[in-house]
Amino acid sequence: MEFNYMTGALEAILFASGEPIEREKLAQTLETDVRTLDAAVDGLNEYYSDNQRGFEILKLDTCFQMTTRAFYGEITRRALDHRRNTPLSNAAMEILAVIAYNQPVTKGYIEQIRGVDCFYGINSLIEKGLVEERGRLDAPGRPHLYGTTADFLRCFGLESLDDLPRLSGIELPEGEQASAAVPDDAQQVLPI
Fold it and tell me: Which residue, 21, 46, 80, sits at the end of a domain?
């Protein structure tokens, strides 16, 4: 497939979708390899940036999504007359941080870390599309496991969870690990 045609087709697919699309699926659809697809996305983003275009292609873990460039976000909201989303409360940000750094985690684990009930906060994050259920833990009561979504990555400008800032200066009680979401002997995740 000719490179110019492929990049045009890539733009058309991402624009029409409005949702993240897996890199592998895009490469297969465009009859190319992932390396060439990545080069096409990088080239398009460079073109968009150099020409002050109003959109960009975000890399979200293993997906791509066409979005409005953050620089034009405020004027876009005004034109579409959207009310601003209410910002996340400190409690919601704490819950989100515990989930992002330790996923998949149970509600009980989050509450153990925070020391307070987290039912409302978790449900609020699920409604906003930042957190999702990831199955159930194979333990008594089969508690739900929670993890972050592609929307979480997009909203925080991350390509993957590896781009989260490194935690430093945090001292855990002796014998605890920063990523121990559940005890090692209870790590089996069951589908919902």
Answer: 80
